[in-house]
From TrEMBL:
<dbReference type="InterPro" id="IPR035965">
    <property type="entry name" value="PAS-like_dom_sf"/>
</dbReference>
<feature type="coiled-coil region">
    <location>
        <begin position="394"/>
        <end position="421"/>
    </location>
</feature>
<dbReference type="InterPro" id="IPR003661">
    <property type="entry name" value="HisK_dim/P_dom"/>
</dbReference>
<dbReference type="InterPro" id="IPR000014">
    <property type="entry name" value="PAS"/>
</dbReference>
<dbReference type="InterPro" id="IPR013656">
    <property type="entry name" value="PAS_4"/>
</dbReference>
<dbReference type="InterPro" id="IPR036890">
    <property type="entry name" value="HATPase_C_sf"/>
</dbReference>
<keyword id="KW-0175">Coiled coil</keyword>
<feature type="domain" description="Histidine kinase">
    <location>
        <begin position="564"/>
        <end position="847"/>
    </location>
</feature>
<dbReference type="InterPro" id="IPR005467">
    <property type="entry name" value="His_kinase_dom"/>
</dbReference>
<protein>
    <recommendedName>
        <fullName>histidine kinase</fullName>
        <ecNumber>2.7.13.3</ecNumber>
    </recommendedName>
</protein>
<keyword id="KW-0808">Transferase</keyword>
<dbReference type="InterPro" id="IPR036097">
    <property type="entry name" value="HisK_dim/P_sf"/>
</dbReference>
<feature type="modified residue" description="4-aspartylphosphate">
    <location>
        <position position="959"/>
    </location>
</feature>
<dbReference type="InterPro" id="IPR011006">
    <property type="entry name" value="CheY-like_superfamily"/>
</dbReference>
<dbReference type="Pfam" id="PF08448">
    <property type="entry name" value="PAS_4"/>
</dbReference>
<feature type="compositionally biased region" description="Polar residues">
    <location>
        <begin position="36"/>
        <end position="49"/>
    </location>
</feature>
<feature type="domain" description="PAS">
    <location>
        <begin position="418"/>
        <end position="487"/>
    </location>
</feature>
Length: 1047
């Protein structure tokens, strides 16, 4: 135990069970209490220090409150500028040390934190000039220079780690001292509203601990470097003293090293030092010793350090003005020099820094110094002892040390390489790496992190949430919250668009963040995260979805195409079969008529009946011819599409005359145009005439095919158009490539650049001319939605169910586009609802020199004339109204809507709902011949109106595909009317439930199920024979009659 009255304090634990040490300690004579004192630990100070600081704050506030602002250069507070008032308030309430230097007199205003940290008496310099503070000191000079720079340049100035000596009685012994301190000052100009600088606001940060730590660690490093190469103890001692004298003048003002002899361990010998005088070279353990020797012995035996006031040791201390801030040493430490196993090697006498308290960092520094000295001494002592015994062991030990040093160097090099690799990898890695604190502040981020987030490197990385897309910020914040609770998170989010970014492509990021916990405390220590750019993956996924949607759409279009083909082929086939029935029936009737006349021995027979029968047969044959032409066009379009998809659609230019090609196309349809009462004309453009085009090299077959498609489309529209019917074909030319003007009512289908380039190379030669063709009608026109898809495959340019209204497969314009593109041209459509449409295309051709056999342009235009040429170069025929056609008239001409055709000899009637005029006429004719009275409806709405008006037919023949209202909707409405009448007990049909037979060219089961579910009794597919249809009708009528009888 330590003798009574002895004040000691140790941060080293003595050896457990060290009997020698304990017994020796009791033999040491006591030292007078005044010679030693115990250094208070910081843990004993907080309550006292807090009370003192609170008193200081109160005193400072009183001094500030009582300061006479009105009589000072600052003036009354109500006269202060807003800027000054703002900085004054900031300085006074700031939780950190801050001061305000204001006005031309540099009036000093500071808060309690500032005064307390700098050791100023409460309010002593408050309101006084800054020039009175630290007069003549280096600190005053440095701050004055910074103050001038700040006020003249208007920029903030930072002064780091400025040395100052402050008096602070709260942190160490009573009475205080001029403590060595290091402060970092940041000066900010105070700018008034008019832009003038009226003062400087300064904030202060205490960096003393960091400066002292760096300084002391540098001493240990230099000591290690200097003594590491020593091979004998004398060199080790010399180099140790040299380093401590040179590099540690502030913290070690005096140094003396006593080392135990290696033999008896009972004697300490002085080995090296500085600042000591009259010191004993050798100290042995004996009952009577001087105070200096006794302190050294006590420290070596007890393995604790001893602090003592220097006043009792003045005769041992030699004053050195170059050390300890040129002040006398106040306190000594007798420090045991111990190895890592706490065995004492010697004792070091150290004079402490008179300007610093002996606190825990100071203690730790001296502990590390003692252990480093002990390690060096012990190592060299072992080397010397081994050298005395076995010289080869020295060599082996040296070699081993070299190997260890080499291994250390290699390991250090490997570590440096590993660190370098990690740094380079983090720098070049495309993924963003970051480390964050438990509070969520980003502490480290690599270049890829900044690149991904587009967040500026000079900004605070903790605010990276601003770079996230606004729509995903809530997701990111919630994920970050879960990570801070210790969960690993993986999310995907979008980045906001960069400022000035043109691309609208959304940038995506995959984030993976995990939490790391302290192994000892179990608390969250670090958040580690990786960000990966997944924009390409998201785009690929979107592309895959688009492709899937496109595949579904293509399947839908193909199904539509199959339905259209089925409808378009079965309708005319049905008409052909029925026409064959009619023709056969009439021919048999005529044959019977002739045979009957011969049987009677007369060649006379009813001429009118014979004429009517022949007319009806001729009409049936005409219907078959028309339907055959329609089937031929469908088959041609389908074959053309197949050739185009297979690349077997060649273009074969030959010598031909464009005007003749147009004339021939128009002649092909002249008869149909007359029957439809459509005015038609050909117009030749001025450029065509001026260029003098006669014969060119082009493919007339392909041009003719395009014109036929466009003209037939126009005729379909005009056939049901009730207003003015006009068809105009224009022909013009250009020596340069035409350019279409784009606007809302026009649709263009431009070639893919690669296709256009290939076509251009194929068609490039001399005498190039571009021929322009236009087909314009005055029909119903198209909607913008229809116009947008006019030239796509399997889509109709009239409506989603064009074949119901006009017939067709949806391939005509697509085939036309491909034909035009293959000839180096482009096609466009321009339309306006209820004002008609115009389709314009051009092809690339080559002018050919006129041969003697070629016809002049004038002759060609004359041959085009259908009547005569007008002044504008237009060839036209007046509108012709004709009643010659007996099978192409509209429903309004031969059969008005809801008209009734009945035979008085029959008591059976049939409602025929059919939009196709040919099929309508055939069904009507055949039902009349079968003895039925007929009621005709052109679409489903008319059929519903007929039923609602009180008509009571025996059966209904309902087509499925019709304009205005289709068969499915019409059947549903008729059944609903029957249910309503039954529920309200209205007059019921005399025949009960109306038998309905559905007709359709669609053969898929889905269409069967849909019509039967709507209420149809039977479903008959086209084509069908009329006798088969009559059998179904009779079957239903018989079943209906049986139900009435049972009722």
């Amino acid at each position: 135990m330590t003798p009574p009255g002895r004040a000691t304090f140790s941060i080293f634990a003595p050896l457990d069970g060290d009997e020698d040490s304990s017994s020796s300690a009791t033999a040491v004579p006591s030292v007078p209490p005044s010679a030693h004192r115990q250094t208070p630990r910081p843990s004993t100070l907080p309550s006292t220090a807090t009370a003192r600081k609170e008193n200081y704050v109160i005193e400072h506030q009183k001094a500030c409150a009582s300061f006479p602002y009105e009589t000072s250069s600052l003036g009354p507070q109500d006269s202060w500028t807003p800027s000054f008032m703002s900085y004054y308030s900031m300085a006074m309430i700031a939780p950190f040390p801050s001061m305000l230097i204001y006005g031309p007199e540099l009036v000093l205003i500071y808060n309690a934190e500032f005064g307390h940290v700098l050791g100023l008496d409460p309010g002593i310099y408050f309101g006084r000039s800054f020039s009175e503070l630290w007069v003549g000191s280096d600190l005053n000079f440095e701050l004055s220079e910074a103050l001038r720079t700040c006020t003249t340049t208007g920029r903030s100035v930072t002064k780091e780690n400025l040395l100052c000596f402050v008096t602070n009685p709260d942190t160490f012994s009573e009475g205080g001292m001029n403590k060595e301190a290091y402060l970092t000052w940041k000066l900010t100009p105070v700018t008034e509203a008019d832009g003038t600088i009226s003062g400087v606001f300064a904030s202060v940060q205490d960096t003393t601990d960091a400066v002292l730590y760096e300084r002391r660690m540098q001493v240990l490093k230099e000591l290690y470097d200097a003594t590491g190469s020593a091979e004998v103890l004398d060199v080790f001692y010399t180099q140790s003293v040299s380093v401590l004298r040179r590099a540690c003048a502030e913290d070690i003002a005096l140094f003396g090293l006593y080392v135990l002899d290696s033999g008896t361990a009972k004697t300490l010998r002085y080995r090296c030092g500085f600042g000591l005088r009259n010191f004993p070279d050798r100290i042995s353990f004996s009952p009577e010793q001087e105070l200096f020797e006794q302190a050294i012995l006590d420290s070596s035996l007890s393995a604790v350090y001893i602090t003592a006031m220097a006043d009792g040791f003045r005769n041992y201390i030699e004053y050195d003005p170059a050390r300890g801030w040129s002040e006398e040493i106040i306190e000594l430490v007798f420090l045991p020099v111990m190895r890592d196993n706490n065995s004492v090697v010697g004792v070091a006498v150290i004079g402490l820094n008179p300007r610093r308290p002996f606190d825990e960092p100071y203690e730790l520094f001296l502990e590390l110094l003692g252990r480093q000295l002990a390690t060096g001494i012990d190592n060299l002592r072992h080397l010397e002892e081994a050298s005395d015994k076995l010289s080869w062991e020295v060599t082996l030990s040296t070699r081993k040390r070299q190997e260890l040093e080499q291994l250390l160097q290699e390991k250090t090099k490997q570590l440096q390489i590993s660190e370098g690799r990690f740094s380079r990898m983090a720098k070049i890695l495309p993924a963003g790496l970051f480390l964050a604190s438990p509070e969520g502040e980003v502490m480290y981020a690599n270049d890829a992190w900044y690149k991904l987030s587009s967040y500026p490197k000079d900004g605070n990385p903790s605010f990276w949430i601003k770079a996230v897309h606004p729509g995903d910020r809530a997701l990111v914040r919630e994920s970050w919250r879960r990570v801070m609770l210790g969960k690993s998170e993986r999310i995907e989010f979008r980045w906001a668009h960069r400022p000035g970014e043109v691309s609208k492509v959304e940038r995506w990021c995959a984030s993976a963040v995990s939490a790391e916990f302290d192994s000892e405390t179990g608390k969250l220590s670090t958040l580690t995260g990786v960000w990966t750019d997944i924009t390409e993956r998201k785009q690929s996924e979107a592309l895959q979805r688009q492709r899937a949607d496109d595949a579904v759409e293509r399947k839908r279009q193909q199904e539509y195409f199959i339905d259209a083909i089925s409808h378009e082929m079965r309708n005319p086939l049905s008409a052909i079969m029925q026409s064959i029935d009619v023709a056969s029936e009439r021919l048999k009737s005529l044959e019977w008529m002739i045979e009957d006349s011969f049987d009677r021995g007369s060649t006379l027979f009813d001429a009118q009946a014979f004429k009517d029968g022949m007319a009806e047969t001729t009409e049936a044959l005409g219907m078959m011819d028309l339907c055959t032409s329609h089937l031929n066009r469908i088959i041609t379009d389908t074959i053309d599409l197949s050739k185009m998809e297979s690349g077997l659609f060649p273009v074969n230019p030959v010598s031909c005359q464009p005007v003749t090609v147009v004339r021939e196309v128009l002649k092909m349809h002249e008869h149909e145009l007359k029957n439809m009462a459509i005015d038609y004309s050909i117009e030749i453009g001025e450029n065509f005439r001026e260029i003098g085009i006669n014969t060119v090299l082009m493919d007339p077959l392909r041009v003719r095919q395009v014109l036929i498609n466009l003209i037939l489309n126009a005729m379909k529209v005009l056939s049901s158009w009730e207003n003015e019917k006009k068809l105009i074909i224009k022909l013009d030319a250009s020596l340069t490539k035409p350019t279409f003007q784009s606007h809302n009512n026009a649709s263009f289908y431009l070639q893919h650049p690669a296709v256009a380039e290939a076509t251009e190379r194929r068609n490039s030669s001399a005498n190039v001319v571009y021929l322009l063709f236009s087909v314009k009608d005055t029909g119903s026109g198209m909607d913008p939605e229809q116009l947008a898809t006019a030239f796509q495959r399997f889509t109709s340019h009239f409506a989603p169910r064009t074949h119901v209204h006009y017939g067709g497969t949806g391939l005509g314009l697509y085939v036309s586009r491909k034909l035009v593109e293959n000839q180096g041209g482009e096609i466009m459509a321009e339309t306006k609802k209820d004002h008609g449409s115009e389709f314009v295309f051009y092809i690339k051709a080559h002018m050919k020199e006129q041969d003697e056999d070629d016809t002049d342009l004038a002759d060609i235009t004359e041959s085009v004339t259908l009547d005569e040429e007008d002044d504008e170069g237009r060839f036209s025929r007046s509108r012709i109204r004709s009643s010659e056609s007996k099978f192409l008239t509209t429903a309004s001409s031969s059969m008005t809507s809801m008209s009734s055709i009945r035979m008085s000899r029959s008591n059976r009637s049939s409602l025929i709902v059919q939009d196709n005029i040919i099929n309508q006429k055939l069904l009507n004719r055949q039902f009349i011949n079968a003895g039925f009275a007929t009621v005709i409806a052109n679409h489903g709405q008319e059929a519903v109106d007929i039923v609602m008006s009180g008509e009571d037919p025996d059966c209904c023949i309902m087509d499925y595909e019709m304009p205005v209202m289709d068969g499915f909707t019409a059947v549903s409405k008729i059944r609903e009317l029957e249910r309503q009448n039954k529920k309200k007990r209205r007059r019921r049909r005399r025949h009960g439930r109306l038998p309905i037979i559905a007709l359709s060219a669609n053969t898929r089961q889905v269409h069967f199920d849909r019509m039967l579910a709507a209420g149809s009794d039977r479903y008959v597919t086209k084509p069908f024979s009329f006798p088969k249809l009559v059998e179904v009708v009779n079957e239903l009528l018989h079943a209906s009659s049986g139900e009435r009888t049972q009722g």
